[in-house]
Amino acid sequence: MAQNISKQTESWAPVAVAVTAVTVMLLSMSSVILLCLAMLPTLVATIVDRTPQKYAAFCVGSMNLSGTVPFLIDLWFGEHTIDQALGILGNVFSLAVIYGAAAFGWMIYTLVPPIIAAFLIMMARRRAQQLRTVQAQLVEEWGDILKRNSGGNAASAAEAQSTP
């Protein structure tokens, strides 16, 4: 019985989403027009990025949305008409802000991973140097037996030294 109820609610989910989308489109068509045209770089990033995590879409989309929100707020609290939305999209400076923010998202996606990789390599090299220093101190303290038996553990090295 419980499975039948969940199947019934699952069958209504796409219908509910469609009804909500149509209602939003009818009530705020100017917002829909502004968002659809302003968020085109996000659509491109989603299509181009073939990784399952969609990091490009996330970086570009978040920056693109941050560039779009000020104009969306102007539209909501100002004259909320299709002419106003098209006026915002026709203004070169607003498009420069919107698409410039998306370009900044592409820049983040492109430049941050190599910087992080270089930082991690630098940290790994430093850690390896610290371990070599500790190893040299242990060899100095325990003798050459650690060098000869570096493949085994310390207990087997001590046993090898104690047996004649």
Shape: elongated
**Beta-strand segment tally:** 0
The gyration radius over C-alpha positions equals 30 Å
Instruction: Round the mean pLDDT to the nearest integer and report it.
Output: 87
The largest β sheet comes out as: none
How much helical structure, as a percent, in the residues? over 70%
Which structural class fits the helix and strand makeup?
A: mainly alpha
Catalogue the unreliable spans.
Answer: none
Q: Spell out the helices and strands N to C.
A: HHHHHHHH
What does this 3D model show about the protein?
With 164 residues, the protein is mainly α. It has one domain. 86% of the residues lie in helices and 0% in strands. The chain has helices at 2-27, 29-38, 40-48, 55-77, 82-90, 92-142, 145-148, 154-162. The termini are far apart.
